[in-house]
Amino acid sequence: MRVPTSSPAVEVDGLVMRYGDKVAVDGLSLRVERGSVTAVLGPNGAGKTTTLETCEGYRRPQAGRVRVLGLDPVRERRELLPRIGVMLQAGGAWSGVRAMEMLRHVATLHADPLDVDALAERVGLGDCGRTPYRRLSGGQQQRLGLAMAFVGRPELVFVDEPTAGMDPQARRSTWELLDELRSQGVTVVLTTHYMEEAERLADQVHIVDRGRLLTSGSPLELTRGGGRTTIRLVVTRPFPDGAPESLQAELGPATEVRQLDAVSMLVSGTADSSTLGVVSRWCEAHGVLPESLALGRRTLEDVFLELTGHGLGG
Amino acid sequence: MNALDLRPSPGAAPLWRQVVAQARMESRLMLRNGEQLLLALVVPVLVLVGGVRAADRFDLGFDRPVIDVLAPGVLALAVMSTSFTSVAIATGFERRYGLIKRLGASPLPRHGLLLGKVGAVLLVQAVQLVVLTGVALTAGWEPDTSRWWAALLCLLLGSAAFTALGLVVAGTLRAEATLAVANLVYLLLMTGGAVLLPASTYGGFGTAAAWLPSGALGEGVRAALLDGRVDASAMLVLVAWTAVGAVTTARTFKWE
What we know:
Shape of chain B: elongated
Number of domains of chain A: 2
Helix content of chain B: over 70%
Strand content of chain B: under 5%
Strand order of the largest sheet of chain A: 5-6-7-3-8-9
Oligomer: heterodimer
Radius of gyration of chain B: 20 Å
CATH class of the largest domain in chain A: Alpha Beta
Order of helices and strands of chain B: HHHHHHHHHH
Strand content of chain A: 25-35%
CATH architecture of the largest domain in chain A: 3-Layer(aba) Sandwich
Radius of gyration of chain A: 22 Å
Distance between the termini of chain B: 38 Å
Largest interface: A-B, 44 and 34 residues
Number of helices of chain A: 11
Largest sheet of chain A: 6 strands, mixed
Order of helices and strands of chain A: EEEHEHEHHHEHEHEEHEHEEHEH
CATH superfamily of the largest domain in chain A: P-loop containing nucleotide triphosphate hydrolases
């Protein structure tokens, strides 16, 4: 059967996955267009990996329907696998295998692989090619996993948390690489819990939480809306107890204060420069030293907070 | 920087090429691993040399030259160590490290993975056979080669049986438990399983030992290389163990 190339890269329709009585994916539907970079964004435990692994054919949907490149990932797995590339969240290599040996091995399984030396150079594995996998740093293992995902020149790559554990420089070069993959016509589906990653990379973002799709759109579409602005306050030492309530009282009902973690708070609503002054005076009065105090447009993180009422925790 | 052509050009390599790659990779890793090498070559050589030396001082009660009795047993032991212990431990850790899961998303199908594993085992065993036969011949071994093919057949059947049993262990237990069980079973069978020494030396237990995969393997190889005899019942026992192992593996093996 010839599959029309016009079918979307990924179609998930009403997917339900349970582990025992814990629901991991709860009626999720999403679409990934060909040639795009699509981010599935959500906190740990949101069902991102389960969804991805169902698309990769590791798991059979308990309810709902999944199609990847127009194929059923379980029934038509053998036909699908050579056309996709997969990066697991962790592991995926022998502990004693050398980095280049592993990459070369995966390349051999494909018909028309990339030049492995050039690829290793590109992902920054050049100087650890002879290092056994178990002695690679976390970031190096991630880069090897990424290289293994597209050494076979797939049409579509699924990358699960591609930059977790990478230093900022490696993260940026990974983003450039994923950008380049898209420009060469490869569809990229990534999961992440880094807002910045989704905002910087993705054409389309699907925000998921507790196994459900909350919203979808381009980063611009998602962060537009409402004429709302935000103030992000990061301080040098953890806030005292009751800090968000106390700041909320100062600011009044036009804005909403949320504590993101021990040292950062987000003020959203109709914030302007006078709001900035109130926050700054509040800091002074409570003996907290701002490390940064920034007025900005809505970020994906704000969108996420508004939708879920909790942060990403990572 | 080298320009990298990232445009899609997907496709699987021909299955035979994938299987050969997998077999080469696994055998290379097996021979590189110190503990595995110890089991594969060092222990059998020590047993062979040590056994012959010990026989110079103590009478082991064989009516044949000691080396002629020990050498076939050592070949059987070598096959057992690679196809059971090495396969179990390697596969256990492949599950643990997500390697089997990762390859599950590659073009290599599961039967290709299994064929690759069998190929790796056969490659390592070929190396073992050459080295150990060389050492044994140097030590004065005079095998009866009239039924050499029966010895080879027994080694292959034994290899199949122990690989299947090794996969049962690796596919059901955690990696650490697999490590412990595979080594323990190896030690028990080496000392009490009639692989190295003829079942007849075990007294009353000998009859039972010949039904063990280790006993059948040892007896079959000894029958061929010591007496030029084809031990059909030993071969049938090995076939039966292969069937038991294969069916159990197929039913219980967990890929992740």
